[in-house]
Amino acid sequence: MELQFHPASGRGAVRTLAPGRRAEGLVIAAAGLGAALAVSMWLTVPLVCRRAGRAQNAASLDRESVRTAGERRDLETRIDGLRGRALDGGDLVSRIAFLYDVSLATWPRTLNPESGTLAARDPEAVTQGLRRYAIALDRGVALVAAREAADAALPRDTPSLLPLSTDLVEPASSFGPRVSPWTGSEEFFAGTDLAAPAGAAVLAPASGTVVFAGRISSAVNARLWRFGNVVVLSHGAAGVTVFGHLARVEVRRGQRVARGARLGTVGATGWAMSPALHYEYWRRGSEGLTPTDPRFAMLDLKLAGHDVSLERMRATSAPDSVQPPPDR
Question: What is the mean pLDDT of residues 197-216?
Fold first, then answer.
């Protein structure tokens, strides 16, 4: 084998190299290795490039997927916020409609939780539901406004306030059937107990006339006797409210009180283990006074669960055996 080296300029002498047999083998091996390396590079480099491209695309897709998932979570959070505010508005206007005795025949059923208008989770479906719900909400507000326009005294005379001056309130007993913690027997609890600081002011939830103030004899009303110092307000056509366990009574029978006026203070008189206000709301209907869940008449307290509708509130009742409060 003879190797010739030609100068790049073309003017120099050609150099000749004649390696020995062993060197010749090394040259051939080196040439074979170079050829194999070239073929390997020819096959490997495009493959590596393709893999790198795929990895880059995968990383890009991962970033895009993460970004899209984040945007969807943000969208769902905003939609949940809108749904919550819409349901809060529906609860509030439905409770006012109940207190104002708005007719069921004219009430928009879309506002009822059982309609499922806002139950969907898909953003597109929720958006469509929110549009329908907003229309129904406007209709409900219009019906309530019409009742107020027809009777300007409704907002003043209808119980609708939390009857306490403090925000440190915790429901301790709820309206409905229960086992008495005092007697161990079944009974219907016709109001609610609101745990509150001793001495907190008890307020009139609407304007009215005091029909009773003090302790009721068990011979006159065995049920209300258990609540110690009691105040009973008559609100005319809107019904009657009862306030029990008072430490002090600050009004007298026959006194006219304005909405928000002080009636007394929170105490633990009667059958009470700790300071609390016993509160009842009795609505006046064609058959006389009927107790209802006082939660419906405390509009400054938000109801948990969004589970009330005008129909359900109308259906809330107590057995006829529950002894009503004095009315005059």
Answer: 97
The CATH number for 248's domain is 2.70.70.10
Same domain, 163 and 259: yes
Q: What token pair was written down for 275?
A: 């300071």
Question: Nearest-CA neighbor of 243 among 178, 299, 159?
Answer: 159
* Strand-pair category, 201-203 with 262-266: antiparallel
**Structural domain for 214, as ranges:** 157-315
Output the pTM of the full model. 0.77
Residue 126 has pLDDT above 90, yes or no: no
For residue 219, is it within any domain? yes
Based on the domain organization, do 174 and 289 belong to the same domain? yes
The answer as to whether 37 is a domain residue is: no
Count of the separate structural domains present in the chain = 2
What is the C-alpha separation between 248 and 251, in angstroms, rounded?
9
HEC secondary structure over 253-308: CCCEECCCCEEEEEECCCCCCCCEEEEEEEEEECCEEEEECHHHHCCCCCCCCCCC
Name the 3-class secondary structure at 219.
Answer: coil
Q: Answer whether residue 22 shows pLDDT above 60.
A: no
310: left (phi over 0), alpha (psi -120 to 50) or beta: alpha
